[in-house]
Specification:
Layout: H1 2-25, H2 30-34, H3 42-50, H4 53-63
Length: 64
Amino acid sequence: MESADKVIDKIKEMGEELRVAMFLTGCKTVEELKDTEVIVTGKAKEIAEQRGFIERIKRKKKLR
């Protein structure tokens, strides 16, 4: 039962993070959030570029 509670807690946490992201970007729906520009700076940008994350985002945007 403990692991089920942990899963429920994690889902709630992810839901709250999604609500915060939507609030901060002014999005009313998840669809709007998908189209929001991604801005990454500093060390996070460096890591994202090293892992190819930035290029994947650019490719996905081109496919839409």
